[in-house]
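FW: tagging you since you asked about this chain on Friday. Here's the raw sequence from the shared folder, copied in full. Didn't touch anything.
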Amino acid sequence: MSDVAARLAALRARIASAARRVGRDPAAVTLVGVSKRVTAERVVEAVAAGLQDLGENYVQEAKPKRAAVEAALAARGLPPPRWHGIGRLQRNKSRDAVALFDVLHTVDRAELAAELERRLAADPSHAGRRRLEVLLQVSLCGEPQKGGATPEELPALLEACAKLPSLEVTGLMTIPADGLAPDALRAVFARLRETAQALRGMPGGAGLAKLSMGMSSDFETAIEEGATHVRVGTALFGPREEAA
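HL: got it, structure written out here
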């Protein structure tokens, strides 16, 4: 067993344990392997070991990596993974983003949603395909550099997205502030869950079933508070390569 496969097995065991502690089905939690600055070869190892979902932060890194990973998997007779865009997205990257990602976790403003809609409508490869799945990123710790709509901005953003036929809003995502005490961190995750519950009765909110929260250091707490998607990089792939 490769080190990546061993790490994946250990993570799955920890996810299952965290889910069972609160009476949840472990199968309801999706592990998104964060492959930022991870080589295509190591990503292929993880997918070959059973990882089905990959998260990339940057369009410029994801584009060549997706091509390399899927070519290597095809050569081994393996199906491609599901690709998640989990980094803050600028509008000028929207055309590549809609072509690269199956799910976008970081829609945080109506202008970005409208640009994604425009790019999808203009791309003939998307004609007749299922709508692009998106999650709305929520800022719960007041850190503008990480992106995210405030809870007060969410109803209007949700309503705006509901009017865009090429987008399907399925949940919320958050990134907590660094260095929070365990109780404060748990409170952030609980607040995201409560925010989704409150939005389900609003226009466009009925489908908000997914909560993307939790990373390598805190995913077990996130699962205990209702996470359906945990974004794990270092605990799966080990320390990342230094940026060029």
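FW: The mean pLDDT is 94.
HL: agreed, and The two ends are 30 Å apart (CA to CA).
FW: great, closing this out.
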